[in-house]
Automatic annotation (TrEMBL):
Residues 227-378 form the Acyl-CoA dehydrogenase/oxidase C-terminal domain. Keywords: FAD, Flavoprotein, Oxidoreductase. InterPro entries: Acyl-CoA_Oxase/DH_mid-dom, Acyl-CoA_Oxase/DH_mid-dom_sf, AcylCo_DH-like_C, AcylCo_DH/oxidase_C, AcylCoA_DH/ox_N, AcylCoA_DH/ox_N_sf, AcylCoA_DH/oxidase_NM_dom_sf, Mycobact_Acyl-CoA_DH. Its cofactor is FAD. This is Alkylation response protein AidB-like acyl-CoA dehydrogenase. It comes from Mycolicibacterium frederiksbergense. Belongs to the acyl-CoA dehydrogenase family. Residues 123-215 form the Acyl-CoA oxidase/dehydrogenase middle domain.
Length: 383
């Protein structure tokens, strides 16, 4: 076997020995404590095996080549491994920000801590600043060795479990929108922070509000220059693309499509068969797009709209697939109101998956925003 085939066999054997066989049933309907404990234990297993942060530089515990990373995510998806829900922001968004713009002291403090289980949340969106993130109103005023932060953040995924926050705040209210924002690392135990879970219609409280009242953030926690936070944030936002999208595409193509086939079996209606074949074609295209983006990003050849194309394609395909699952599943699919806490957006609980799919077509830049980026930056169309 070639080196890559050897690696695939190694990962496959590891998954067979370590992926919990009953994790879906054990993680369905669990409380917060059980969910957090399971997530941290699963992350520790992946870290011990060298599979938790393959995209990080070798000096920080990563160093895996792109081809191997692709194989790793393919095998984890094929084995129906739990997702790293709690660690996601830390190992992708926080790490990419620290590596791209953080100081040596910030990297030495937080990257090892993330590997030890430090949990992060993204404090970007606000009630009046969602897709138009540059309209944010949270302020940070210099006061000696600190910045005093006041404002509100919304749709902060997992904030109730977080140790640290990636925070955007306005440090120059008179500057143009994108030129007066600074980027901070905020300790979530700091006095003045109030985290309030947002309970949705099915009882989940994944999203949270964060209220900030005279929160003192040390100036040493500033990432990049003052008023240059918008540029720094591009590294964070970029972490939602590339390899993370490839992982999500593999999961949708494996577990997601498998659940859909089961929901439609036996496939006797030619209309249903045609729809399934169309989904399979689209999934093949998605995997190809993601791999192409990863390889060209690694080579420094990605275009300005390429990530938006992948994000738009994935999110709308996810919504179509989960919507069809809810449709084909009939009334029974509408009565399933629990899903495994450590699963993704393709758990087979179709109505909940469909509701969750809107997390991808609205946050992180709504589909309309992505089309605008593709038109203006990718195709060169006028505003």
């Amino acid at each position: 076997m070639t080196g890559l085939e050897d690696f695939r066999a190694t990962v496959r054997d590891w998954c067979a020995a370590h992926v919990p066989k009953d994790w879906r049933s054990n993680q369905t309907g669990v409380g917060d404590d059980e969910f957090v404990a399971f997530q941290k234990a699963w992350f520790a297993q992946l870290h011990t095996a060298g599979y938790a942060v393959p995209h990080w530089p070798a000096e920080w515990g990563g160093g895996m080549g792109v081809a191997q990373q692709i194989v790793l995510y393919q095998e984890l998806a094929a084995a129906d491994a739990p997702r790293l829900v709690l660690a996601f922001v830390g190992i992708h968004h926080a790490a990419s920000t620290l590596l791209a713009a953080g100081t040596d002291e910030q990297r030495k403090r937080h990257l090892p801590a993330i590997l030890d289980g430090e949990i992060w949340v993204q404090g970007f969106s606000e009630p009046e600043a969602g897709s138009d993130l540059a309209a944010l109103r949270t302020t940070a005023k210099a006061d000696g060795d600190n910045f005093i932060v006041n404002g509100q953040k919304l749709w902060a995924s997992g904030a109730k479990h977080a140790d640290w926050c990636l925070l955007l705040a306005r440090t120059d209210p008179d500057a143009p929108k994108r030129h007066g924002i600074s980027y901070f690392l905020m300790d979530m135990t700091t006095p003045g922070i109030d985290v309030r879970p947002i309970r949705n219609a099915v009882g989940d409280s994944h999203f949270c509000e964060i209220f900030l009242n005279d929160v003192a953030v040390p100036a040493a926690n500033l990432v990049g220059p003052v008023n240059q936070g918008w540029q720094v944030a591009q590294a964070t936002l970029g972490a939602e693309r590339g390899m993370t999208m490839l992982e999500l595409a593999e999961r949708l193509s494996n577990a997601g499509f498998t659940w859909l086939l089961q929901a439609c079996s036996p496939v006797e209606d030619p209309v249903v068969a045609d729809r399934l074949a169309q989904f399979e074609i689209e999934l093949t295209g998605l995997r190809g797009l993601c791999r192409d983006l990863v390889e060209r990003t690694e080579a420094g050849q990605a275009g300005p709209a390429d990530a938006s194309i992948v994000k738009l394609y994935y999110s709308e395909l996810l919504q179509r697939m989960t919507g069809y699952g809810a449709e084909i599943g009939g009334l029974a699919a509408h009565t399933v109101l629990t899903k495994p806490a450590s699963s993704g957006w393709e758990s087979g609980a179709w109505m909940l998956d469909f509701i969750g799919s809107w997390e991808w077509t609205i946050p992180g830049g709504a589909s309309e925003i992505q089309r605008t980026i593709i038109g203006e930056r990718g195709l060169g169309l006028p505003r």
